[in-house]
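Consider the following assembly input.
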Amino acid sequence: MELFEIIGKTKLNGEVYINGAKNAAVAIIPAAIATGGICKIENVPDIEDVENLKTAITKLGAVCERPDPHTLIIDSSKISSHIVDYNSVKKIRASYYMLGALLTRYKKAEVPLPGGCNFGERPIDQHIKGFEALGATVKIEHGMVKAYADNLRGASIYLDKVSVGSTINIMLAAVCAKGVTTIENAAKEPHIVDTANFLNMMGANIKGAGTEIIKILGVEKLHGCEYTIIPDQIEAGTYMIAAAVAGGDVTVQNIIPKHMDTLSIKLREMGGIVEEGDDFLRVISDGNLKNVEVKTMSYPGFPTDLQPQMTALMAASSGMGNITETVWENRFQYVTELKRLGCKITVDGRVARIEGGAKLTGAEVHATDLRAGASLIIAALACEGKTTIGNVRYINRGYEAIEEKLGALGADIKRVFIDDSDERYSEEMN
Ligand code: UD1
């Protein structure tokens, strides 16, 4: 079992290099099996979600090579099954993208209901609505989503919810459907644009990704390609917030600054300095910012995946502030753990009221999901003394070498391996 041990109150200084986007990689890897060709994907983050997806497509018959940790070559020509194994995808939410990809490839797909981070109800009705509009029959049986189609044909689909997953999944299923598919009220996140760009490199004809209306003209077939994944908006934001909470001068390198606009604006409002370059942002902070109002929204709004990290920053800042979560119905479970560090936060439905200025002190805490884990790291940086974070496996899902990157900036953080039988750190808490 792994833990992080962090001794807070050190300033952060220097440069940190951001890896490829997790949420793009977990869509692009399944997208690669929509063709029988070979795809060479670069800037793939070296994280557990990627490893799990690689295992899942290998079990289907794909041959994956990783000539270096950030390059993945997928040869899907020998895929022989349309049924995805439960064990390899139970921890990944994005396994549902295999539905769209296998529908395009084989007109049939059987994929376990998604796992991944648990922050409330995570329905997939909009994915199913999209597949059915394209002509598929979908049923859920024995924990599996089963989709079959004789023929896929283009359709007009209006999403009742702005949903990243269903926007991407419908694109995946529609690329070779006969005629034109229109997705209205589509989500606009950067990884949607990245997945559309990847599919277009494979021969698809997708226009409008990044806007509310996406048009897909079905093509005969897809082919292999070479593609480089965009930088991770959420990893970048996590390091920007780490710099803001700890104080110091940190340059976050290899990013698309535009993707960070809402966070940069909030950090400036709080009194931090954010300077922008072509592919970097420099965050300068005295470690004592003042609180603001934050509301999560789909892109280009403030990302829900930075909400837990922002809550930790605000708990360590001065004054009163509120964070309103509008995307997920139940994304404040981690607050109980932040309170163990001394954070003063009251949750009322979808709003967290944060009273800054509290004295934060290190304690034993447990990550309840991926970004909750990042939030505990942020808070620990502001604590007096040592914080021990359990359930590091959640953090491993989405952050590459986080202790090395923070350590290089000056944080006192180490990954500790302990005996699984050590009851003090039982992972049954979740
Ligand atoms: C993706 C991200 C996740 C992020 C979320 C919102 C990946 C792998 N994960 O998750 O980190 O927090 O976007 O930015 O990219 N909904 C429905 N019906 C559906 C689908 C979604 O009601 O069929 C609702 C959800 O309950 C939620 C909202 O729509 O309230 C947004 O969900 P969605 O954008 O689909 O999230 P994911 O794609 O699962």
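The longest helix spans residues 233-246. Ask yourself how this observation constrains the way the partners meet.
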